[in-house]
Amino acid sequence: EAFAQIALEWPCLLVAEGLGPTGQVVLPEGNTVEQAEICVIVDPIDGTRGIMYQKRPAWILTGVAPFNGTLPTLADIEIAVQTEIPLVKQHLSDALWVVAGEPVGGERYNRISGETQPLHPTPSRESTIARGYGGLARFFPGLRGELAAIDDQIVERLLGPVQAGQALAFEDQYISTGGQLYELLMGHDRWIADLRPTVEPILRKRGLSLGLCCHPYDLCTERIARDAGVVVTDEHGQQLAAPLDVTTDVAWIGYANATIGKQVEPVLRATLVERGLWSEEGAAHVDP
Predict the structure, then answer these.
(1) Which element (helix H / strand E) includes 200?
(2) 214 three-class SS
(3) CATH level 3 topology of 133-274
(4) DSSP character at residue 73
(5) Contact between 264 and 233 (Cβ < 8 Å)
(6) Residue 27, pLDDT above cutoff 60
(7) Domain boundaries, the chain
(8) In 10 A of CB 42, how many CB atoms?
(9) CA–CA separation, 16 and 31 (whole Å)
(10) Which domain of life is it from (predicted)?
(11) What CATH homologous superfamily does 2-118 map to?
């Protein structure tokens, strides 16, 4: 209903799971896709399993890009909003947004008092991954062993072997891409890599399927993180540019700042090359 109202002023192509076989619908009803002026991509509940079991908050993710007859990409998004769906026992809920050319905005809503206060996301300024949160996403069975081995190898190469009675670094497997971006935005995590599509060759050799991956609607608010100073790239170090559809599998990496990126990225790349999971084609490097 809300999108139908928006479409009265800005005819749109709405993209989301569950909208028929293509994941698309044109609004207002009766319009053709050629009449659309904007493309709106939505994930109405990112982190469904976590909120169902009351383990972690979920997120409503929305990205808006101009539409000129060709399906836009993540790089084209000019407006992004992510809104926290809190746990039942949680009385505070955050929302973050960005409009191209403007500072990142945010607010924290108190469900008990009804009050809101400004929220200013600040990614970590730490220059090392030591004693911080970060790592590879490995939510589901299938390749957790391989992904964990890559993670361990990266940390050991950067920080050295584990010492008795010490923890070199920590991880947090938050099964929500919006939630992962939030953790980077708020200074909680220092780096995150979701490389599930990248390791597909290993599964193919085993005669197995890749399973569930990140899709463009999961990443439709990544501009908020980028505009706040987080470095967000694809597996080759390039800006994310997946089409705004519901089917494309997307690998992505986020670094809290460029210093962390310059520390982790070459080691991550070398580790993937050694395992035959990365090539120099299309590669770039994190800028200082």
Answers:
(1) helix 200-205
(2) coil
(3) D-Maltodextrin-Binding Protein; domain 2 (3.40.190)
(4) B
(5) no
(6) yes
(7) 2-118, 133-274
(8) 19
(9) 18
(10) Bacteria
(11) Fructose-1,6-Bisphosphatase, subunit A, domain 1 (3.30.540.10)
pLDDT of residue 276: 84
By DSSP bridging, strand 58-66 and strand 38-46 are: antiparallel
Q: What is the identity of the amino acid at 15?
A: V
Question: Cα(186)–Cα(68) distance, rounded to whole angstroms?
Answer: 34
Q: What does each C-alpha distance from 288 to 195, 257, 259 come to in angstroms?
A: 23, 9, 7
Query: Cα–Cα distances in Å, from 12 out to 35, 40, 74, 123, 167?
Result: 8, 7, 16, 33, 50
Tokens (6 digits) for 181: 């971006």
User: What is the tens place of the pLDDT at every residue in 147-187?
Assistant: 999 999 999 999 999 999 999 999 999 999 999 999 999 99
* pLDDT band at residue 2 using 50, 70 and 90 as cut-offs: confident
Structure tokens at 60: 């409503």
Contacts of 153 by beta carbon, 8 Å cutoff, 6+ apart: 271
As beta bridge partners, residue 135 has 192
The whole-model pTM stands at 0.93
Phi-psi label, residue 231: left if phi above 0, alpha if psi -120 to 50, beta otherwise: beta
